[in-house]
Design goal:
single chain, Aspartate Aminotransferase, domain 2, Aspartate Aminotransferase, domain 1
Amino acid sequence: MNVPILDLKAQYRTIREEVALAIESVCESQHFILGPEVERLEKKIAIYSGVETAIGVSSGTDALLAALMALGVHTGDEVVTSPFTFFATAGTIARLGARPVFADIEPVSFNINPARLKDAIGPKTKAVIPVHLFGQCANMEPISQIAAEKGVTVIEDAAQSIGAEYKGQKAGSIGEMGIFSFFPSKNLGGFGDGGMIVTRNPDLGEKLRILRVHGSHPKYFHKVIGGNFRLDALQAAVLNVKMKYLDRWSEARRANAEYYNKAWKSSGLDNNGEIIPPQAIWKSGSGNAGPEPGRNYHIYNQYTLRCAHRDDLRAFLLSRGIGTEIYYPRPLHLQECFADLGYRTGDFPESEKAAAEVLSLPIYPELTLEQKEYVADSVIRFYR
């Protein structure tokens, strides 16, 4: 049996006609940059996230970049974030001439550890970027409290976590700004790159709208330097179709995760340390039951295990036609391009340990029962 890590064709088959009509409508209008489709999507995302303002941009990376620009981050500033995340989180900081400063992760959730955050914030710190990794919110209450005490701004990197909840609040709505990515592999994915910034601050929202069009307001008059961060109408049209299915797809991912979790429990794998399934850093009640106020609501953009003999397991699954991925094999503080930051192996042991142990299994909504059985049985066979 072949089980890819992600099967976008399976999802496309369920919405093909709706998407074709949406794309045709944009083609007939010949309005390809920003415009009504983008405005519709912005309103939907703002309402869905429980914020006042949403600003469509060209990618999740550009969402991070524009958010930092809106805060005035520049050379000499520092921004604290996790070393265990996709490169864009730290890359955008460095692009503005600022210094990425890392704080180690919590070993259970893979998200930034609030206990390590306080010491990482210094007099040059302009912002903190907690990452809601793999579809689960970071522990935002202590993070927000520490940031407030230190007088720094919180930007939520929710690129992987649209729809996730923390104590009744949607990902992206807790900090001063939140960013989403619509990369095709995300729970809400487009047919290319796209992103969104959400905020409760309308003045900040207006600033971001100006920044995304080269800083012009009105057109051809520039008080600030921005960038070309505009969202395409074709991407917005596709996302407007997909938006109504988002919660249904996320629930299917959660059901698939629960299937795996029960398989590990019944086989005893989660009792002897051979694998550790995804868990919540905090929870009142089950980490997989929600969405209810006070509970963690994981939307499983990835289903990421800690595994003994990770590389051997991956090779075994590949031999049986099962796709896997390692997110991420090298933490950011050990990337060659950040060598001048002065970090060394051992500086962030939890991030380094995670990089050596994590493996993500297929979790997409369209997985069949037979595919899930095959994946679970294959993992159990390996350890037996």
